[in-house]
């Protein structure tokens, strides 16, 4: 694989929400055009398209996006990898440029979700009470993981709830987030209990959305004169769980993330102490706490202290999910991974407005799909 660096030269996302009158290709096309405009390029300049979509994946969504923005005969790769779908599409584009196949590619992530809870299959009626379904639903799985963390490290209901308070506060500064509403601690803890310790305000929001990014080789970036605004992809890692001979009663959402983090840090030649901000997979408040440790942002057992001290809030030592995260910005599965890239790039460019992480030069994106796919990207301002 080529050692030439790969850069993001254009990226954007639509405001996440619910758009029942629009199609998935229409949503994806909007983000694609926004990202192309950000790069100052057109679809005729792209040499390949990588499209991430989960629920409508059988419909050749990438090709249908091209029906709307221009059919130029380029190769299209459609990816589906649970919540890591968008990040996988982005990574495939990165790999293709690294391999020397192309100099300019477009990555798009798009999803149209129903109302209800994550794992509800897009049903407008949501999910019945946890007890009727057992422990297979995502709210319950992440509740169990949170309770395991409580058992090992004493993490409290209040500490988990503080994650939601923080991320909802961050969302008030992000006009592309689905919700932009403060939720005081008492409100979060007193909200409808979905699966203890996750209340309704501690669960990610199922929304429709799309995000896109234009990736380029270093040669092409210099040729276009865009080096002053290009963001380098320092590392890209994608893992799945290794074999284990023990019976798992629930997916393991930690092992593949720890593996991906180690690979990404090694590839980038940096450590967690070098990061200025992180967009991680807070599908539930309990998940964010676990991933502080999985990503090496703190030692095992210290995640509760991180949220108590404000270390992961805007202005803290290592701000996490300043976009509002999946809890407020929303979680359209196929779009999330690239939306995270958009957020980090925006900060590294110094264009994040009120939520800007001052002096940000390096950031990480992280998503995990069904406990068996973890994707991490480290991005840097050259």
TrEMBL record:
Entry's Gene Ontology molecular function annotations: acetyl-CoA C-acyltransferase activity; lipid binding
Domain Thiolase N-terminal: residue ranges: 6-184
Domain Thiolase C-terminal: 254-380
GO biological processes: lipid transport
Native source organism of the sequence: Tepidicaulis marinus
InterPro entries: Thiolase, Thiolase-like, Thiolase_C_2, Thiolase_CS, Thiolase_N
Keyword Acyltransferase on entry: yes
EC number(s) from the headed UniProt entry: 2.3.1.176
PROSITE patterns, per the entry: THIOLASE_2 (PS00737)
UniProt keyword Acyltransferase, yes or no: yes
Pfam families listed in its UniProt record: Thiolase_C_1, Thiolase_N
Keywords assigned by UniProt, alphabetized: Acyltransferase, Lipid transport, Lipid-binding, Transferase, Transport
Protein name in the entry: propanoyl-CoA C-acyltransferase
